[in-house]
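User: My collaborator and I are trying to settle a disagreement about how two of our proteins should look. Neither of us wants to argue from intuition anymore, so we agreed to look at predicted structures for both before our next call. Could you fold the first one, then the second, and keep them clearly separated?

Assistant: That sounds like a sensible way to settle it. I'll keep them separate. The first protein:
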Amino acid sequence: MAAVTDNAIHPAFEKLRSHRISTLNLDIEEYRHKKTGARHLHLAADNDENVFFVALRTFPMDSTGVAHVLEHTALCGSERFPVRDPFFMMIRRSLNTFMNAFTSSDWTAYPFASMNRKDFDNLLTVYLDSVFFSKLDPLDFAQEGHRLEFEKPDDPSSELVYRGVVYNEMKGAMSAPTSQLWQNLSSHLFQTTTYHYNSGGEPDHIVDLSYDDLVKFYRHHYHPSNAIFATYGNIPAHEHHEKFEELALKRFERQEVKLPVHDEKRMFSPMRVEQGYAVSEGEDTEAKTHIVMGWLLGHSFDLQENLEAQLLASVLFENSASPMMRALETTDIGHAPSPMCGLEDSNREMTFVCGIEGSEPGRRDDLEALVEQTLAKVVDEGVSPERLEAILHQLELHQREIAGDGFPYGLQLIMQAISPMVHGGDPVELLDLEPVLATLREKIKDPEYVPSLIRRKLLENPHRVTLTLRPDEKLEGAHQIALRESLAKRKASLTDDEVKLIVERAKALEERQLRKDDDSILPKVGLSDVPLQMPEPEGKYDPETGATLYARGTNGLVYQQIVLPVPALSEEELLLLPYYTTLISEVGCGELDYLQMQDRISAESGGIGASFLAKGQIDDVQAMSGYLIFSGKALARNSGELTQLLKDVYSGARFDEKERVREIIAQVRARREQAVTGSGHGLAMGAAAQGLSSGSWLSFRLGGLAGIRGTKELDKSLNDESALAQFCDSLAALHEKIRKQGRQFLLIGEEAQLAPMLDSVKTCWQGGNAQVEGDWSMKPVSYKTKEAWLTSTQVNFCAKAYATVAVDHPDAAALTVVGGFLRNGYLHRAIREKGGAYGGGAGQDSVNGVFRFFSYRDPRFAETLDDFDAALNWLCTETHEHQALEEAILGVIGQLDRPHSPAGAARHAFHNNLFGRTPEQRARFRERVLNVTLDEMRRVADTWLKPEDASVAVITSPDNRGVAEQLGLSIQEL
């Protein structure tokens, strides 16, 4: 279908140009608001999921997090909607598919998406008012940014503490060594521009931000003359313009917004820096050093510079056959390539990074020598035309692919366009890659082209920083002492009036948080606006091959899966599955070693992989079934090659390259350890739920905290050659077992591609059976947990879990609504607003039959666990309004109806049917959700969520060991 275009132009706007991108099936239209100069990029597409995005250029020149705190505070009430929390209130009154706000290093954005036109207009009204007419109440600044408070807010004899949502969010974010690594590297690469500073805010600097500074920053930056609007979908641009003008723009005149936009001053010789990062006192510091090298490159908005830098990054890092990635994976300098490796092109000037983690401080010179030797070798030997063609093939594939599973596709396109718009480049060029790819194809014919890029951009580029970030077990203790002394000194200097002011502000803030605002002034959708059951794709089954085919608008890509029921496995074999699925696409196959296979995968596909899916039955979570899935995607012209590639991996993957296996496990360990501070709430919930059902136990052992601990132990054990050989033999034996299972296929592509895909499957898999019989099963699991997991973190992640019911149980729908009801009505206020955590909530997981409470980046611990219980008491004893119930139901329906990409929708439907989640079952669940009552919520809470039955898990720092032991939690070392 063609994109939706409209030639009408609103009189307040002038059209600058329009441009068709046939490979993306959309038209790009660019406009300017005549009076203010505000820019608008509209991506006209035949898609019901309309996206709105407004960005302001924000270039902070300190690390107080002013732009980040402002992003939070701006959403706390506006001129037209003077309620305390319109953003979170609208989340509850909306059918949005996405709502958020972002603070980048040099812009702040407010995006949302919705498939419902009434809902889109409602959200647009609130967003425009919040951004351009924000109230910026000082109490909201105190809540969202930072405030000084007594530990017991009404008791001046208690200690002074810092509180605030952004303050605690950044304490959590900056607990991760990788966050510190990036921030420290940037601060040295960029000495004079905004990128020198932490736009999110350094916790020790956030507390220096004053309310007056915030207001001043808002007045300077939040003006339409400094704004970039972007929209995507099937609403015509002139209809957006009508709203923009009426709701905001007509009230403004053009303003000259002067911002420090300039290039970084160049260094003339490389710099070397060594810094520490905090680990727990007594923690082993061996092999925990990060060493990275960063180069400053050219302008990100210069298309030629950008594509050359991307080409360079792909040549060096695309996969394990790429020279730099191979060098970093096989060296003994460290355990794994740094997650920083690659190109960062969102800033005005690009950064190229390579490095290692799991090293020692004394290995810096070795790393520099390795990197320089590897680059020099590429310059001398060049890069094969086949390798370069494979890289361009990947660029084309990624540009064509319609993503959007979890993040709206239109928003992804806008995010690609925003950087050039902020920095003065052309957004159309970066979205329309076809002409550029054609130019690059010509340039790579010159064998000196890539070597000259490496020489010019890296080897001869003196603006280079080598950063060594080493673990320091004394750092956090010293920091805490300094903070306590600073606060004690501050407290000692307080006048009586200042003490009174702190107590009064804490009281005023609590009163404001408890106040019931008149939310009738906010627009809303109701249950009458909820669509009937959302249509889902239907597949056609081919009995000869066991293939299910879905015709979808995939923009020239094809997707294929081989689906095998899991055979009977011992517990040891079961625990191997995550390593097996990770390694299967990373090892050699048949006659090809892993390096040759990496090249083949890159040349013929958009990537292949394997996954393990397991779920309970719709009426019994303990009755598990599972599937191994081999997946791949490719451009349609490579459909036959994809089929053969998957067949070869299925048939011939081998696990005899022992060093390769050892390298990949080291990388898996590094990634999983780093995930704790970013995914702590999910890991804590998984630990709390581990004993409540078979599926929960499996998740905890394979992907949860027990899985992380197991990976660390495995990585250490593989230093022993006999253990490594045994591990490889076990993987090979598991592969043989899996290959004997009956199989079926999932094929997704455009209508014209399905017959050729099916033919290639028939040809490739001649003589194979399509029986689907799996006899894997698990024993039921039932035990309670009370655990505290200790790791290096400045914040806590708290969880409680209860055993509940499977998805088709009559109570599942009410429990699902209870989760949203508790979050909206009690937990958000208690845990985020009052407690200062970045987030908190509750939810029913009907796949595993558990209900879970959580907090995220939380300064509190025992108090939060008490709040979980208090929320249940509040539900069962207070009087509640029907509107609150309706809002919770809307939230559940919004999650059920969240759109997928064309291919993702087909995968979702197919996998649902594998596990008995038929359209009829889902329609039944949806109807039950829509009919949930307040009395039913109280009944299911009283039945299933009794505080004495709770399992508890907390991820916290070793400093809280005593608190954990007082609460009766067993101590687990991560």
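The second protein, kept apart from the first:
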Amino acid sequence: MTTAHTTFADRHIGPSPDDHARMLERIGYSDIDALVADAVPAAIRTGRPLALPAALDESAALARLREIASRNTVLTSMIGLGYHGTITPGVILRNVLENPGWYTAYTPYQPEISQGRLEALLNFQTVVADLTGLPVANASMLDEGTAAAEAMALAHRVSKAKEPGAFLIDADALPQTIEVVRTRAAALGIAVEVADLSEGLPERDGCFGVLLQYPGAGGAVRDLAPVIAQAKERGAQVVVAADLLALTLLRPPGELGADIAVGSSQRFGVPYGFGGPHAGYMAVREGIQRQLPGRLVGVSVDADGRQAYRLALQTREQHIRREKATSNICTAQVLLAVMAGMYAVYHGPEGLRAIAERVHGHARTLAEGLRSGGVQIVHDVFFDTVLARVPGRAAEVVGAALERGINLRPVDADHVGIACDETTTAEHVTRVLEAFGIEGPGGPAPAGDLLEGLRRDSVYLTHPVFHAHRSETAMLRYLRRLQDKDLALDRTMIPLGSCTMKLNATTEMEPITWPEFANIHPFAPIDQARGYLELIGELEGWLAEITGYAKVSVQPNAGSQGELAGLLAIRGYHASRGEEHRNVCLIPSSAHGTNAASAAMAGMRVVVVKCDSGGNIDLDDLHAKIAQHGANLAAIMVTYPSTHGVFEETIVEVCKAVHDAGGQVYVDGANLNALVGLARLGEIGSDVSHLNLHKTFCIPHGGGGPGVGPVGVAEHLVPFLPSHPLRPEAGPADTGVGPISAAPWGSAGILPISWAYIAMMGPDGLREATEGAILAANYVARRLAPHYPILYTGRNGLVAHECIADLRKITKETGITAEDVAKRLIDYGFHAPTLSFPVAGTLMIEPTESEDLAELDRFCDAMIQIRREIARVADGTYDRADNPLKNAPHTAEHLAADSWKHPYGREEAAYPLPSLREAKYWPPVRRIDQAYGDRNLVCACPPPEAFED
């Protein structure tokens, strides 16, 4: 009899106690303690249990979060600085942000089962390309600040100058953007200069790039064409950080001559969230699109020649090129890009323009009211932000506005900034005027066009998708139609190794849309965010206890950013000791691809350490590399358990060897799901780690973002954690490395998810989840081992939380590849495991603790049945070139065609297992031609005619 679920941990962990007993029996163990004792080396096991609060049930956790949220004060923020009030259409809020069909999807590396979100991302790319006037836009960046930093790096890469000089930033750029760029530039050895460019470029030696803000942080709208032309004459690449809503009215950067445009899509329906997550963007001119960082959705064809979408130019990615990569697979905010793109689909070009005109109208009314009351307006031409000069009265005015429920921006003692947005009303304008001591409502905006000569006359969003879904019924059905094309965690397990696609419980997700969390501006007065500070403080403390580190910062808003923050902390530490020359980073060949890319981004020189035949770090090679580079050794980056899915026995020895040579130890926390409650990274010799809250701690992947990659450090590295220029509370202001992300606490809006997970699991539940993950991986490995060799195992033939099925011998004998198996799994209704990483020709499988025994068996049954199909290829029953694996996946259209020329039956193709008749997923396209899409790069919405027969 199955034991009743009584706690949240019981519901989070899929198998029941009886199921666990059956799984243990299958792998030859009487209890979980015996399995863990054999799987996890004693040398890394912690000597003390987790000192965390006892588990809360779901109702109590929500009540506690309500209490925390009540300490946040939600006022009307007219602060601006790149963050604006917006209205999320209800149909998008409910059917995207709150819909597991969208938020539990994984990065679309298997494009055949990702056509819905790929189309949504292509919409986003089209919006950005159209509004910026540049031909190619990517599928999102992390935020505006990091997008600008990536643009600087891109400009540096494409610069033809022998001595590229400095990167020049206009003083009217967003302050947080300036500092994020400085942080990134310092690591890369790039000089940054900030100057007033309102009158043109200064007379100076060459610069390779120029960053302009449009409109400026102070609100000014200038004609950028002259300064852009001046920069081009000097051979510089021009980056324009632009407001997408303003671009519905203003001449776009591409028409002004810009090479690159960056910014945020936050005001397209994405809540403040105290700073994130929001989708940044980047668009580029013709000629540098193959250098464009981030993910790029392109159009290709499937096996029948039909149009289909996929990720383009993946040879740029760091999992392939490592330290030479121009793109990072962790640099995206897919779910938020989908929301922003759908906001444009919902409103269309006319609706967006109407919103922009209304915002601009409120700003003009406000400015006229201030002028009529004797207040000087600094900039005559503006879009949504008015900068008022009130000598010595700024604090008084800001305080008066606060009394009226409105946050303004205190620029300095003499100036106040007021930003209007989609949520601004006439009543808000009246209250702001009152704060300045001006009674009565603001009059109508004066006649005449404030933006005359600067207005856009080119069209945008002409594609039918931005005109076809005007009713909510149509919009609802469009979202559902796209969702139905995809496979997400709400339909099936996603057994991706190293990606921990575990349950994202509804109770964890619920609070993120509460107004007290969603509607707080990141630069609102700090006493309005007391609840956030309490939640962040508790979460950082819990994560420090779990990992054994002295301090954790949640600022990094992706795993890649956490890696960079950790490496910059190491750089800062060495520099503080007069050892700036230490720049060598040792990276095992088994490491995550992000590691090498992050080391290069941090200005370090990558030296690869070999692995032995068991997948472990080759200690002889490690000692040889330390001997060779010891004087310059900065760090080693180790993933633990290894990316090969093994608890390496020698990790403590590895840490000691690096420390003895004066280096620091960075342990990639991506696989922390196998350690929580059993071992602490800080206790085994590690100095710093990033953690993936979007993996181990249940923040959903959202199709490839949002993510949170906090960085945890030992005591000696605490002074070198990320800081922030506008929030001294966010990090060590005097010694910190600067901001890693634009917002002080990164993607704070989704931190309630991980808080709720830890609070509801409690110390025992967290340990049980880890044990469950190890058990599930070993159960799957044991079931599959007779059919597919398991590439790496540890002591007693056990794996950690994932296992690698090796198909290389099978491929050599039959011609059936790991990719063929991945595509055939689609016909069985499964997302494929991780394909050909970290070892080409293999599948890396991670089942997680959340999948129940029935689902684990369903997956194993599918893999075993596919092995039988491979055997039919081997014995000649199936043709080697024309068989269900080579032709997978099979669409309903393909199966229903009048002509069927394959030597196997339609039923074999569609229903290889009887259980599939009960619930069948039909892929929307057949196998996609990847090379065709790269040869014929199309990265915006194709015309409807492209989909005709």
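Some points you might bring to the call about the second protein. The chain has a mean pLDDT of 94. Residues 334-372 form the longest helix (39 residues).
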